[in-house]
Write a structure and sequence with these properties.
heterodimer; A: mainly alpha; globular; B: mainly alpha; 8 helices; 83% helix
């Protein structure tokens, strides 16, 4: 059995820990109040990175699903499944933090806005992806079904965004891209984004390792029978 | 091309024949749809003005659930009796099987909708003759059948098929449901159909994209 814990894992966890501490300090203490958003901007240092990881993770799920159906290498399926598990957590975080922000800034928890709707549907598709696996009669079938769900979901989410865009628009546009936000806020946000991205990568690799170990155990158990 | 259509037609005919003999899908789904509509008419005052605003949503809630019920029964019949294996052994491509099953489910759903529509219009005191509503129903049902056929195939092979189909189907069907509700609202409020143009375009785009994608992915859903 190979030793899965390379020294890089430890280093990455250390860097992520420091980055996360810096990001938290930046979000809660260092960052001043914003003119319009006031103190609610502190929520966005968690919300924006979570939403970003939600999308990145699903991109990886879909890409790996295509590769799995094409190459039939279990490696891709493990990666897709792990990314979905981690992605579901970050999508939930994005939905919850967004809802808390909306309540404190707009005065309501929820509205049918394109970004909100498509994120909620993305969350449901993540859920469908993971559920179809656990309810499949065989593991290999579950992997195939889940890959089909991921690909359909990947095509569907932009259509949902466009549909609800026609209907309603409440979510503020990305102010960072337009340069409307003071550089100090952008810097804190960037640190937070880096910390979240690193955390995602660490969680993803750990989940993949765990799944590989589980498969190894299963194989050992089979050979003992 | 005509050879392709002939093969698809043979599969559709198989489903029609089995439906004519068992009357398994259309009757039960129709009864279900009417019951849903009746419950809604109990829940809301049919004379009130609000009902006009709500009726589009009510109609599509009923049709969405009815569609899932029909799709699930159509695929369950194939897997339970092992006839899906027979179908897969036919010397045709997988997308021919998909198109055949899809078209047969579409036909059954349209039959149910055609029968339920007058009941809906009467129960909610709406104008009885709304031909443009038929267009919206046709377009949206094609979208339902396209994703519903592949998801019903997947769900039929899982341990909890009754719950699996809605979990897979509803999130993906959201664009069609929203657009169909909005277009129905436009028609019921008596505005010209051109007001609903962008909604119809969304449904059309959804239909085209998912017909192709589902036909392509069907192979991976039935592979043994």
């Amino acid at each position: 059995m190979k030793n899965k814990n390379t020294p890089w894992t430890g280093v990455a966890i250390l860097i992520a820990f420091v980055l996360m501490a810096v990001a938290l300090y930046g979000a809660l203490v260092f960052s001043p109040e914003e003119k319009q958003l006031g103190n609610t901007i502190r929520i966005l240092y968690v919300h924006v990175p979570s939403a970003w990881i939600a999308l990145v993770a699903f991109g990886i799920v879909s890409l790996c699903s295509v590769l799995f159906l094409w190459k039939r290498n279990l490696k891709w399926d493990t990666l897709a499944r792990s990314s979905a598990e981690v992605g579901l957590v970050f999508t939930s975080l994005a939905l919850i933090s967004g809802s808390i922000w909306a309540r404190s800034f707009w005065g309501w928890w929820w509205t049918w806005d394109p970004r909100l709707t498509s994120t909620l549907i993305l969350w449901l598709i993540y859920l469908a992806y993971l559920m179809v696996r656990s309810y499949a009669t065989e593991e290999s079938r579950g992997a195939r079904y889940a890959a089909v769900v991921a690909i359909i979901g990947f095509v569907d989410v932009p259509i949902i965004y466009l549909t609800t865009r026609l209907w309603n628009l409440a979510h503020p546009p990305p102010t960072v891209a337009r340069g409307a936000l003071d550089p100090i806020f952008v810097w804190v946000l960037m640190v937070s984004l880096a910390a979240f991205t690193l955390l995602y990568i660490i969680l993803l690799t750990r989940t993949v390792e765990q799944k590989n170990l589980r498969r190894e155990i299963d194989q050992l158990r089979q050979s003992l029978k | 091309m005509s050879e392709y259509l002939g093969k698809v037609g043979a599969i559709i005919w198989k489903d029609i024949l089995s439906e004519l003999r068992t009357k398994d899908i259309v009757t039960s789904v129709l009864v279900f749809t009417v019951l849903v509509l009746v419950i809604f008419s109990f829940a809301f005052e049919p004379e009130s003005e609000v009902i006009r605003l709500l009726s589009g949503g009510i109609l599509w809630v009923a049709f969405t659930f009815a569609g899932m019920l029909g799709l699930s029964r159509s695929m369950a019949a194939e897997t339970d009796k092992g006839s899906l294996q027979g179908l897969l052994l036919c010397p045709v491509d997988r997308d021919v099987i998909f198109m055949g099953k899809m078209a047969a489910s579409l036909l059954f759903m349209l039959l149910v909708e055609a029968a339920a529509m007058p009941i809906f219009l009467i129960l909610f005191n709406l104008p009885v003759f709304l031909p443009s509503l038929a267009l919206v129903a046709l377009m949206a049902t094609i979208g339902f059948a396209a994703i519903g056929t592949i998801f019903a195939t997947i769900a039929a092979n899982t341990k909890a098929r009754e719950i699996m189909l809605p979990i897979l189907f509803i999130p993906v069907a959201v664009p069609v449901i929203i657009a169909a509700v909005k277009a129905t609202g436009v028609i019921i409020s008596g505005e010209p159909l051109s007001t609903a143009r962008s909604w119809l375009l969304i449904i059309a785009a959804f239909d085209a994209i998912f017909l192709v994608l589902s036909a392509f992915l069907f192979e991976f859903a039935v592979e043994e």
